[in-house]
């Protein structure tokens, strides 16, 4: 893809979005009621992610037992068919996957009220069925939804968003093609606040416009939080209606 | 999950008595209800997701790739199957035994001709299976998921000429027209033996007290190899009489056509 | 529909694919598609209003007066800034403000403010009648899976040992703990106390508790079982159900003991038995005195032997009850004795018990149960 096609002079991106538009965001919770304590299914653009929370539960291994608080375990499974070109290897135990798992555990450890669940294990499994850029931010949103569905106490939503920088123009919520050609930042924003629980930059970025980039990212994350909130409240009303029957 | 001694003996007596009583009242040839979704992965040629009523869930993706089949060894297959069971290591006995069975079944039964593009090139199919959760042995569920995925698979339409030995050109495809992949894939059934009775599609608690179980393949409207016996538990497992193999095959014959028709039905 | 298998088929995206999928949901879903692309431009305010109006339109359709006055909150949401409230479960506290930590309805009882999550694991309370499974035999204690966040503990001193009450405990008991209860064994018990961390300690010091025999186990969400005085019910067809508060359920052949317990409870409260015409009402003659049973409680209470004559018909009845309870669970209807009995009667319309595993037949049973309650005028 030539650099010109990424962002046209008229201000349109390749998929027709403007610089500050999110992709389609469609989520649901309680999708795996039979087999888990909490679950979510998230479609963000062409990303499709299943998140399953089991616990808090008795840890199968004594090493996972902490007398004062819960232990959090996250395992990420990126399926070989998730990208357009099928990847030849199973991704398990790849360095990249282990790194993402660690980032997610660190982010959510601070957000869950872990001290309420001593001597237990919270086990999160993520299955990425399809990916198209901004993977880390999707994983964050999926986990937030699944944790809330499980009734596990958290301080606030964490909503994930990615912002790229193209010739000084920040672009919100990158797809995989955009991700290749430009530097990007992934943010995890706490609820409606401007606090960041995660900042993840792997490429070079000019520092002088960093503030601007963050402001746009935070605004985008707030929108995602609102969308998740709408779905959660809708689901809650439906359930209360059922229970009142 | 381990059952208590009293649960096991109650189940064993119920299933081995004559007439038998299954814990959920099913008939001996009756399957548990399933829910199938197809065509949800836009970047795959075919996909399906199947959920059984106990929450067992399996997702299958079919992707294709154009390869030069003239360089293939005679044993090389145009179909590759990979299996991932969530929470199980790739080298665990269960994953290894199921994937070897799947490889054997699907690499042999899918006709090479149906994948041939030109005299030189063919499609290669990658069948990726992800089992998200499972309680009893998932083999039958997997085969039904692969069946529906293959039945919803569309491959690009060839526009260049079939004979390309002389003209050294790569096959080219129509921009958006796709052709439905026409196959009649095999199905794999699991039958358990309890006393003198046989049952299809065992639930977890039934598997726990099975004296033995048989994996039976159904291909091209008849029972075909591989047929394997499988121990589902440590305590009740024992040898079985040859007559029961016959009865198991009759049981499969009784329901296989119905299942195939239901799975193919495009409603 | 064939009697071999029932298949529900869908194509395309499987967003909102719940088993109990209803049209209402798919209608609501379209709202989000209208906002496929979200602008956060300068016209953000306008856009926000757009979304708000759309959702309020959606919620009015599902809105109902029964929870109109209930405030629904999500994590991080300010519940109150009034410091007079005591903060209960599901909330946290930051500089005089009380925030929610879960998604659910706000509950205000006296001065206690809490948020009840929509879904959570069973959390034990003292006095709960539960069903559990032994997972570990340890030093003078058993670990019991009761579906809670942590396994419960059953102390060796909290069980009746063979030989009756006057028997002395010996070191020998510690060595033969596995001969009383071992891994995998199911039992019903009462929650005796709770530990600081919320885990439970159980006891089985009553003849109605102990090892479970003569039947099958099934499991439903614990939210569907309402705490009540009695959790063991004799049902028509010579079947007894133990509805554990934790959602673990045991269905078994009605034993002599069940009949004894039931006849004593019917004397106290005759109205409970009047709804059923099973063997429950008629038995009074061969009731055995409780003291006598206690004397007889020997090794038999830990026996692994089932009753020798459980007839095929009785097994079928138990299977039928299993499917009825599963149907109620699928329809998310609270499970009570009355509903099980109504559901059982409704299920008789399906002579083949196996057909009750199909989704639409389960729905029929749920509808019948709800309609029956409306007819009687005691709909909740």
Automatic annotation (TrEMBL), chain A:
Source organism of the structure: Henningerozyma blattae (strain ATCC 34711 / CBS 6284 / DSM 70876 / NBRC 10599 / NRRL Y-10934 / UCD 77-7)
Gene coding for it: TBLA0H02430
Database matches in Gene3D superfamilies: GHMP Kinase, N-terminal domain
CDD domains: RNase_PH_RRP41
Domain (Exoribonuclease phosphorolytic): residue spans on this chain: 21-152, 156-219
Keyword Lyase set for record: no
Gene Ontology biological process terms from the UniProt entry: exonucleolytic trimming to generate mature 3'-end of 5.8S rRNA from tricistronic rRNA transcript (SSU-rRNA, 5.8S rRNA, LSU-rRNA); nuclear mRNA surveillance of mRNA 3'-end processing; nuclear polyadenylation-dependent CUT catabolic process; nuclear-transcribed mRNA catabolic process, 3'-5' exonucleolytic nonsense-mediated decay; poly(A)-dependent snoRNA 3'-end processing; rRNA catabolic process; termination of RNA polymerase II transcription, exosome-dependent; TRAMP-dependent tRNA surveillance pathway
The protein, known as: Ribosomal RNA-processing protein 41
GO CC terms: chromatin; cytoplasmic exosome (RNase complex); nuclear exosome (RNase complex); nucleolus
Chief place where the protein resides: cytoplasm
Assigned protein family: Belongs to the RNase PH family.
Keywords tagged on the record: Cytoplasm, Exosome
Alphabetical list of InterPro entries matching this protein: ExoRNase_PH_dom1, ExoRNase_PH_dom2, ExoRNase_PH_dom2_sf, PNPase/RNase_PH_dom_sf, Ribosomal_Su5_D2-typ_SF, RNase_PH
Sample GO molecular function, one term: RNA binding
Quaternary data: Component of the RNA exosome complex. Specifically part of the catalytically inactive RNA exosome core complex (Exo-9) which may associate with the catalytic subunits RRP6 and DIS3 in cytoplasmic- and nuclear-specific RNA exosome complex forms. Exo-9 is formed by a hexameric base ring of RNase PH domain-containing subunits and a cap ring consisting of CSL4, RRP4 and RRP40.
Cellular localisation: Cytoplasm; Nucleus, Nucleolus
TrEMBL record, chain B:
Superkingdom of source: Eukaryota
Chief location: cytoplasm
Subcellular location: Cytoplasm; Nucleus, Nucleolus
Gene Ontology BP terms: exonucleolytic trimming to generate mature 3'-end of 5.8S rRNA from tricistronic rRNA transcript (SSU-rRNA, 5.8S rRNA, LSU-rRNA); nuclear mRNA surveillance; nuclear polyadenylation-dependent rRNA catabolic process; rRNA catabolic process; TRAMP-dependent tRNA surveillance pathway; U1 snRNA 3'-end processing; U4 snRNA 3'-end processing; U5 snRNA 3'-end processing
Keyword Disulfide bond part of the UniProt annotation: no
Pfam families per UniProt: RNase_PH
Start and end residues of each Exoribonuclease phosphorolytic domain: 30-156
Keyword list, A-Z: Cytoplasm, Exosome
GO MF annotation terms: mRNA 3'-UTR AU-rich region binding
GO cellular component terms, semicolon-separated: cytoplasmic exosome (RNase complex); nuclear exosome (RNase complex); nucleolus
Cross-referenced InterPro entries: ExoRNase_PH_dom1, ExoRNase_PH_dom2_sf, Exosome_comp_Rrp42_subfam, PNPase/RNase_PH_dom_sf, Ribosomal_Su5_D2-typ_SF
Membrane-spanning segments: none
Annotated family: Belongs to the RNase PH family.
Name of this protein: Ribosomal RNA-processing protein 42
Organism field: Henningerozyma blattae (strain ATCC 34711 / CBS 6284 / DSM 70876 / NBRC 10599 / NRRL Y-10934 / UCD 77-7)
TrEMBL record, chain C:
Disordered as annotated region, ranges: 38-69, 261-285
GO MF annotation, one: RNA binding
Extent of Acidic residues compositional bias: 38-50
Domain RRP4 S1 residue range list: 121-192
Composition bias, Low complexity: 53-69, 261-276
Residues annotated as domain Exosome complex component N-terminal: 72-109
Keyword match Signal: no
Record keywords: Exosome, Nucleus, RNA-binding, rRNA processing
InterPro entries in alphabetical order: Exosome_cplx_N_dom (IPR025721), Exosome_RNA_bind1/RRP40/RRP4 (IPR026699), KH_dom_type_1 (IPR004088), KH_dom_type_1_sf (IPR036612), NA-bd_OB-fold (IPR012340), S1_RRP4 (IPR048565)
Record's protein name: Uncharacterized protein
The organism of origin for this protein: Henningerozyma blattae (strain ATCC 34711 / CBS 6284 / DSM 70876 / NBRC 10599 / NRRL Y-10934 / UCD 77-7) (Yeast)
